[in-house]
Amino acid sequence: MLAEAWGRRRYVAVFVSKVDEALGEANETRSWLDDALDCGYIDQTSFARMDAAWEAIAAKLSRMIDRAPDFCKHPPNFNYRVMEEEEL
Questions:
Q1: Which of 18, 24, 50, 68 suits a disulfide with 5, CB 3.0-4.6 Å?
Q2: Sign of the CA dihedral running 14, 73, 78, 80
Q3: In a domain, 18, yes or no
């Protein structure tokens, strides 16, 4: 989903929508982690490690949403295919 968001960064609303979908998927993963712990499929140590990783990912996705204009700084008709690497 993030690759799709990056490819659609011409439009802030679409970029935000795709990153928000990724955040929703991350939240679903956290729910599965809770279930795995509750059912005894993983121990508390494994849960804590994976939950911390989830927390970091969710924070980054949230920050991307908050900073969407920084990622979508060119006008919708901008041709990203002809940009120099340093312009990205």
A1: 18
A2: negative
A3: yes
